Amino acid sequence: MSKKLWGGRFEKETDALVEKFTSSIDFDKKLYNQDIIGSIAHARMLAKCGIISKEDAAIIIKGLVEIKIEIEEGNFECTSKLEDIHMHIESRLHEKIGPVAGKLHTARSRNDQVALDMHMYVKEKIHETVGLLDTLAGVLWKLAEKHKNTVMPGYTHLQKAQPVTLATHLKAYYYMLQRDRERFSSALKGADIMPLGACALAGTTLPADREYTRELLGFSKIYENTMDAVSDRDFVMEFLSCASILMVHLSRMAEEIILWTTSEFNFIELDDAFATGSSIMPQKKNPDVLELIRGKSGRVFGNLMAMLTIMKGLPLAYNRDMQEDKEALFDTAETISACLEILPKVLVTMKVNKQNMARAVEDSFADATYFAEYLVKKGMPFRQAHEVVGKMVAYCIKKGKKIKDLSILEFKNFSDLFDEDVVVEERLPDEIINKNN
């Protein structure tokens, strides 16, 4: 199984260190299914075009199906001597069906073969990611609907700013995820182009039918330029870019929930099943899941930067540098999937401390803008209203009061435009709820 399929022009054995250094089988074995599906379609195309016989194609396809079963049952041997999953499958096919296996690589190069597998993988992962995004977005929307009347402080600069509802806060993340969904859906266009048939870089003189292969594999388009087909990794970079922006959003959400679980906020309590403890401090209940989501954003950003750096200086067409695309892609795909799978469970099971949220509004001057806008409605220019209410806040701080607790006489000391309607009980939560939902 160790014979090199490309070794005809070489007179020496490959050095063991070179075999180890250039091998990618430890990570690209993930592509076995895509590789086999692509090879089956390629064999069918070769038979249709009369490049190989239908009988040979049937033997090849049967062998490939059996290899797929071997891999999935754990009965497949891997070795660094055969570099990658593509050579492993072809070598095993030789062992199973003999010289007929050598016909499979007709009108194909490892360059377009690898590119095809990567396109298929990215397409699959985009569909999976969109599904997971929809689940998380659905959870956020349901929680928001449940908390339309849950009043809490909104923050700017991490300082209490204006009252909002928890629904408004959660829906902000819902709409971020909708943009993420649109980005991934857009990235699908770049992944949904078939490179097979470009061969090494210049196509083939054999009468191959790329359109037929495209139909078999379910791609919407074919690369128009063969050099572009084997050297393009834009679709990988687009996926990593979409994933990075998604992780920005997930990290921000995680950070806020982490803050809200602290005793200083006490807005949220995590379910015991989605929190951890301390090895030394018995009282601790740590938001480790959320901290890991926040932390994993760094590795996803790093994968994007690595890929951009790998591609930035490469001449056309294929270069072995591009082997480094896989670990970045695989790690990112697995990371965002793990985050998107666990975050909905954290959200669904967490307890919202409504009273503490409401109290945080009452214990602040988050309603100051309301009073400034009240004066604007009475005809005062906003800048003047801003100054008036700013003086009211300073007065209240000195007196240990809240604006809503001032008497009508105290209100009128700052402006005659204040009237009895400014102190109507319970008006503020109602207005917040109506405006923000």
Description:
The structure is a single chain. The chain folds into 3 domains: about 5-105, Fumarase/aspartase (N-terminal domain) (Fumarase C, Chain B, domain 1, Orthogonal Bundle); about 110-205 and about 220-360, Up-down Bundle (Fumarase C, Chain A, domain 2), CATH 1.20.200.10; about 365-435, Ribonucleotide Reductase Protein R1, domain 1. Strands 1-2 form a two-stranded antiparallel sheet. Strands 3-4 form a two-stranded parallel ribbon. It has a two-stranded antiparallel ribbon with strand order 5-6. The chain has helices at about 15-20, 25-30, 30-50, 55-70, 85-95, 110-145, 165-190, 210-215, 225-230, 235-260, 290-310, 325-350, 355-360, 370-375, 380-400, 410-415, 425-435; strands at about 150-155, 160-165, 195, 220, 270, 350. It is elongated, with a radius of gyration of 31 Å. By secondary structure, it is mainly alpha-helical. The protein is built from 17 helices and 6 strands.
Any descriptors?
two-stranded antiparallel ribbon, two-stranded parallel sheet, 17 helices, Fumarase C, Chain A, domain 2, elongated, 437 residues, Ribonucleotide Reductase Protein R1, domain 1, 3 domains, mainly alpha, 61% helix, Fumarase C, Chain B, domain 1
In a few lines, what is going on in this structure?
The chain has helices at 16-22, 25-28, 32-48, 54-72, 85-97, 110-146, 166-191, 210-217, 226-231, 234-261, 288-311, 325-349, 354-362, 368-377, 382-399, 408-414, 427-436, and strands at residues 151-156, 159-165, 193-194, 221-222, 268-269, 351-352. The chain has 437 residues and is mainly α.
